[in-house]
C-alpha cells in the first residue's frame, strides 16, 4: 500500500511531508496513523520550535484515498472507527502540538487536506491552489468533529458553500476571508515559507507556546481549559526569556532567546 507521512528535522524546525505522490497525497488509513505518530514525535523534541506541513510534489493533499473506502465505509461501526479513532486522532495530534504549525499549500487542498490545513496555525498558499470538500458527490457528509473544525476556520457561510454546493474555492478568495495568511505567486511559495519560518524562529519560544495554548483553548470553546490557562497566564513574569526580551528592547539590540 502506498502512502506515508515523513518527519525530517532542519535545525529548530521540523518538516512533516504528506507523501502519496501517485494520488496527489490523498490520505490512506495508514497515513492517518503516521500523522499522529509524527506529530507526537515532533512535540516531544525539545529543540523543535516550529513545524511545517507540506505535500510531496505539486499538491498539498487531494483528500482521502477513495480506493480504500469500500473496505470500511459501509458499516456504521467501521465508519465510526475510521473517523473517531483514526482521522480525528491524526487531526488532534496537530491541534495539540505545543509549537506553531505552518501549512505550506500548493495545488489541491481537498477534504482531508482542508481538515489538516484547518488544524495549522498559519496557512501559506500558492495563488493557484484550490480548496474544497466535494464529498456530497461521493454520497456522504463531513464527520461531526471534522465539520466543527473546518467551519470554525472557514466560517459557517463558506463551509456551507463547500459542503452543500461542493464549491471549489480559489486561494485568493480564502486569502480575502483570512483563512489563508499569505499568498505567493507560482514558484515563490517555498521562498515565502522560508521567510516565515525565519521570522517566527527569531521570536520568543516559550511565548509562542503560551500563545499557541491560549489560542487552542479559545478555539476549542473549552471553558475549563481556558480558565486553567488564564489562571497560570502570568507565571512567566520572572523567566529569563521575559527579562531578555525587555532588556534587548531597552538596550536597542536583537534579543538572544534560548532554544526552548
Please characterize this protein's 3D structure.
This protein is of the alpha/beta class. It folds into two domains: 4-201, 2-enoyl-CoA Hydratase, Chain A, domain 1, CATH 3.90.226.10; 205-250. 46% of the residues lie in helices and 16% in strands. It is built from ten helices and nine strands. It has helices spanning 29-44, 76-95, 112-119, 144-154, 156-164, 171-177, 189-201, 205-220, 223-231, 240-250; strands at 4-10, 13-19, 50-55, 101-105, 108-110, 122-126, 130-132, 169-170, 182-184. Strands 1-2-3-4-6-9 form a six-stranded mixed β-sheet, sandwiched between helices. Strands 5-7-8 form a three-stranded mixed β-sheet. Helix 2 (76-95) links the parallel strand 3 and strand 4. The longest helix is centred in the N-terminal third of the chain and has 20 residues, at 76-95. It is globular, with a radius of gyration of 19 Å. It starts with a strand and ends in a 10-residue tail after the last helix. The model has no long low-confidence stretch (mean pLDDT 94).
Amino acid at each position: 500500500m502506498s502512502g506515508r507521512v515523513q518527519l525530517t528535522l532542519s535545525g529548530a524546525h521540523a518538516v512533516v511531508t504528506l507523501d502519496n505522490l501517485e494520488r496527489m497525497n490523498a490520505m490512506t488509513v495508514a497515513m492517518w496513523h503516521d500523522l499522529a505518530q509524527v506529530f507526537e514525535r515532533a512535540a516531544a523534541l525539545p529543540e523543535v520550535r516550529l513545524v511545517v506541513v507540506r505535500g510531496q510534489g505539486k499538491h498539498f493533499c487531494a483528500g482521502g484515498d477513495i480506493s480504500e473506502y469500500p473496505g470500511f465505509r459501509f458499516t456504521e461501526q467501521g465508519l465510526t472507527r475510521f473517523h473517531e479513532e483514526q482521522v480525528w486522532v491524526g487531526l488532534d495530534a496537530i491541534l495539540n502540538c505545543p509549537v506553531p504549525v505552518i501549512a505550506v499549500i500548493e495545488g489541491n487542498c481537498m477534504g482531508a487536506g482542508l481538515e489538516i490545513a484547518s488544524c495549522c496555525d498559519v496557512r501559506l498558499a500558492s495563488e493557484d491552489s484550490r480548496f474544497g470538500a466535494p464529498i456530497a458527490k461521493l454520497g456522504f457528509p463531513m464527520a461531526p468533529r471534522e465539520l466543527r473544525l473546518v467551519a470554525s476556520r472557514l466560517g459557517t457561510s463558506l463551509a456551507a458553500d463547500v459542503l452543500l454546493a461542493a464549491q471549489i474555492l480559489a486561494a485568493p478568495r480564502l486569502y480575502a476571508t483570512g483563512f489563508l495568511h499569505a499568498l505567493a505567486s507560482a514558484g515563490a511559495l517555498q521562498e515565502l515559507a522560508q521567510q516565515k519560518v525565519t521570522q517566527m524562529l527569531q521570536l520568543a519560544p516559550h511565548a509562542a507556546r503560551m500563545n499557541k495554548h491560549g489560542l487552542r483553548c479559545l478555539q476549542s470553546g473549552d471553558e475549563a481549559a481556558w480558565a486553567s490557562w488564564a489562571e497560570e497566564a502570568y507565571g512567566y513574569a520572572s523567566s529569563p526569556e521575559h527579562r531578555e526580551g525587555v532588556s534587548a528592547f531597552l538596550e536597542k539590540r536583537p534579543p538572544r532567546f534560548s532554544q526552548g
